[in-house]
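Most newcomers find our protein records easier to grasp once they have seen one. Sequence and backbone structure share a record, each on its own labelled line. To make this concrete, we reproduce a full record directly below:
***
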Amino acid sequence: MMLTMQWLFFVLIVLIAPSVYEASNAATGSVGLDELSFDKVINKFEASLVKFDVAFPYGDKHDAFVALAKDAKDLDDLLIAEVGVKDYGEKDNEELASKYSATKDNFPVVKLFIKGRKEPISFDESKGFTSDELRRFIREKTGMYLSLPGCVKELDKFAQKFMKANVDDRKKLLKDTEDIQKKLSSKDAASGKIYKTIMEKILEKGDDFINTESERVKKILNSKVSEEKKKELGIRTNILQTFQLATNIKNENDEL
């Protein structure tokens, strides 16, 4: 009798273990999708970032995706999801992945699905598959706010207001930014100066300064610079993107 009970317990563990492992392996804040639930769930959100990958992902790229999922947990309009693909047994989700040009030869593949847009946008990992690059990608394509290294949320809001305002209001917002800058912690002080400098340059040279400065910084980053300088320029790029996104939204609204 005892042997029979032990055998039954062993069988139960074997049956349950795979599903327990799969659940524990999912990224925190990420939703697992399959061929039956994919369209149903995706269509409920304004934007969905989906990673097509092996059934049990691991490594630096998966860790970057996990970090992003945690950071995006408070964005109600954005879904972070994963499709686990098996190339054995019943080959779960293989057909769904293939539909979006994702195969075991190019996993992981990340696609951004935006409501009202027929085709998803592919994440280009040529700059690196990191949580920062994933956040930049989402911000650039959707305009949704996701904090980036060096960005200050309160000043990001002022940057967005600044780009939508007329010249007189911009001068007032610059003064408000200076007041906030004085109250920043030592950790954010350097970033505060960058916001202020960019606003001053825009008032002096116009909105085109954002694009020309972004190109200038990009060229420097592509040259031989120290890691410390790369970090500094990366922060400047992130802050410039906040101004750039606000400009894009303003231009889109002007066209309507």
